[in-house]
Specification:
293 residues; alpha/beta; TIM Barrel; eight-stranded parallel β-barrel; 11 helices; 14% strand
Length: 293
C-alpha cells in the first residue's frame, strides 16, 4: 500500500477556523477544490468530516458536483444538530444528499458520550443501513483507552478513531490498539501533529501546557540528533505503525498538502521510532486538546 493511501484528509478546516497554528482562516472554495484535486491525484481517497464542521459537508458536496472525482467519506453523528432527522435512515440520506454521494464509507458517533447515549436506540437501524449499503462501516471517535476497552464489549463496531502522535504514542496506546485489532476493528488515528503543538516555540506555550515542555524538548532533541524535521517525524511515526490502518491529517493550503505528501517519500528508522516510544507522558489529560481551554 503506498503511504498516501493510508492518509485520510480531514475537512474541519473547510468549514471552521481550526487549530492553534492556523493563521489563515478557512480556505476559499477554490483553494478547497485544488486541495481535493491534489489529494485525489495522490491516492488520498477518503475524507473525514462531521455534521458539526460548519459548512464542510456542503463544500465537499459542491466539489463532488463539479468534479469527476468521488471521495469515500466518513461523517459523524452529532446530537447538537437539531435540524437533522432523528430517524437515522433519513438523517443519513440528508448527509448523502449534502455530500452528493451514494453511500458513506463510515458513519461515526462523534463522541463516546453520544455512543453511550444513542447506540442502543440506533443499533438496529445501523445494522439495516449497513445491510442496505447506505453505510459501509460504523464507528466511534474516542479519546481514552478506557473508552476503547468499553467499546470492544459491543458488537457492530467496525472503526475506532483515536488520537495517536509523538506524545500520545505506543507507550499510551499500543496494548489497547492491539486488542481492537484482534477483534477485527479498523483503526484510524488523528492528531498526528497534536493541532500544531509540536511546531510552537516553547517560549510561546500557554501556561496550562508548560508541564509538556520536557517532552516537547525531548522530541526536539530526537529531531535534531537524527537530522529529521518535526513534520516528517510526526507524520511518518504514525504512518509507519503496522497496527494503524489510516492516519487523519488536515491542511489549510495546497502547499501544506504537497509538503505532507513529500514527507512520505522518506521513512524514519526503527531506532528513531524506539526513541519516541520511550517517551512516557504522565500528564495524559494535556494530550487532549479539548482540555487546553
Amino acid at each position: 500500500m503506498p503511504p498516501t493511501n493510508k492518509i485520510i484528509l480531514g475537512t474541519v478546516q473547510f468549514g471552521l477556523e481550526y487549530g492553534i497554528n492556523n493563521h489563515s482562516g478557512k480556505p476559499t472554495p477554490a483553494t478547497v477544490n485544488t486541495i481535493l484535486d491534489v489529494a485525489f491525484e495522490n491516492s488520498i481517497n477518503i475524507l473525514d468530516t462531521a455534521e458539526v464542521y460548519g459548512n464542510a459537508q456542503e463544500v465537499i458536496g459542491n466539489y463532488h458536483l463539479s468534479s469527476k472525482n468521488k471521495f469515500d467519506v466518513i461523517t459523524k453523528f452529532s446530537s447538537s444538530r437539531n435540524d437533522l432527522s432523528e430517524n437515522l435512515k433519513n438523517r443519513i440520506r440528508q448527509n448523502l444528499n449534502t455530500l452528493n454521494i451514494d453511500s458513506l464509507y463510515c458513519y461515526m458517533f462523534h463522541s463516546f458520550n453520544d455512543f453511550k447515549k444513542y447506540f442502543d436506540f440506533y443499533k438496529n437501524e445501523i445494522a439495516a443501513l449497513k445491510e442496505e449499503g447506505l453505510i459501509k462501516k460504523f464507528g466511534v471517535s474516542v479519546y481514552t483507552n478506557h473508552e476503547i476497552e468499553e467499546l470492544l464489549g459491543f458488537e457492530g463496531i467496525d472503526v475506532i478513531q483515536l488520537p495517536f502522535n509523538l506524545l500520545d504514542n505506543t507507550q499510551q496506546r499500543s496494548s489497547t490498539i492491539k486488542k481492537a485489532k484482534e477483534k477485527g476493528v479498523e483503526i484510524h488515528t488523528r492528531s498526528a501533529f497534536l493541532q500544531g503543538l509540536f511546531f510552537k516555540n516553547t517560549n510561546e506555550l500557554p501556561k496550562k501546557l508548560i508541564p509538556l515542555l520536557p517532552y516537547l524538548n525531548e522530541i526536539n532533541s530526537i529531531s535534531k540528533n537524527n537530522n529529521i524535521d518535526l513534520n516528517s517525524l510526526s507524520l511518518n511515526y504514525a504512518i509507519q505503525q503496522n497496527t494503524i490502518d489510516h492516519v487523519l491529517i488536515g491542511v489549510d493550503t495546497v502547499d501544506q498538502l504537497i509538503a505532507n505528501i513529500s514527507l512520505l517519500q522518506k521513512s524514519i528508522s526503527r531506532e528513531v521510532c524506539q526513541q519516541i516510544d520511550s517517551i512516557i507522558v504522565k500528564e495524559t489529560d494535556l494530550l487532549n486538546p479539548s482540555n487546553w481551554n
